[in-house]
Design brief:
Layout lengths: L5 E5 L22 H8 L6 E4 L10 E3 L8 H9 L6 E6 L7 H12 L6 E5 L5 E9 H11 L7 H5 L4 E5 L11 H13 L13 E3 L2
Length: 210
């Protein structure tokens, strides 16, 4: 019996604010950013990684946006062509605090909100993490078709007409690694084991946005 969802992991970014390195390979307390992202969606029936192939502890499907480097919307379009499930979780590889519990909360909120097209992680300041969400596949497909050419399109444009349920982050799980300060902070937290995760049901912190 399957999990009921597939996952798209975006790992082909250029890391402009990290001196242009491939940040997917950054070591984060014994595992790379990409390995941690793949682990967070370990319960998916199929994991599609949009990036150049490299060794990973588990089997995944590899693909790449064409041409490479044309943004997350183009990457999602490439990944969407490889998934099968009606629910698709999309995560960026630069969020090392995401866990399987995070993904479960996003999926549970989507299951509990039939009219919603997607759920999205929101930090303590109310900022949506546009690349940490669970989507109905038909909603993603419709939004991509409406945009036309996905190259260099913004995520805000992609989700502009979607009915989204915001899911409040727990602890530091909404932290992303855009700068070296972010990387060092995340590495220190992971070494200490104080990600601040909470595996309890957190539905009381779910906020609906239409």
């Amino acid at each position: 019996m399957g999990s009921g969802y597939d996952a798209i992991v975006l790992a082909g970014g250029t890391g402009r604010r990290l001196d242009g390195i491939d940040k997917a390979d950054l070591d984060m307390a014994g595992a790379t950013l990409l390995e941690r992202a793949v682990e967070s969606v370990a319960s998916a029936d199929r994991v599609v990684v949009v990036a150049n192939p490299r060794p990973l502890p588990r089997r995944v499907v590899w693909t790449r946006e064409q041409p490479p480097g044309t943004g997350p919307v183009a990457a999602i379009a490439a990944g969407l062509a490889k998934v099968r499930a009606s629910v698709v979780v999309v995560v960026a590889c630069d969020m090392p605090m995401l866990t399987t519990e995070t993904i479960q909360r996003l999926r549970s909120a989507l299951d509990a909100s039939e009219p919603a097209d997607a759920t999205m992680l929101v930090d303590d300041n109310g900022r949506r993490q546009l690349l940490a969400g669970a989507y109905r596949r038909h909603a993603l497909t419709t939004a991509l078709h409406a945009l036309g050419d996905p190259q260099n399109q913004s995520m805000r444009a992609l989700v502009a007409t979607m009915r989204i349920v915001d899911v409040a982050s727990v602890g530091a799980e909404a932290l992303d690694c855009d700068t070296w300060d972010d990387v060092r902070r995340s590495q220190a937290m992971l070494r200490r084991g104080d990600e601040g995760q909470n595996t309890a049901d957190d539905t009381s912190r779910t906020r609906r946005k239409v």
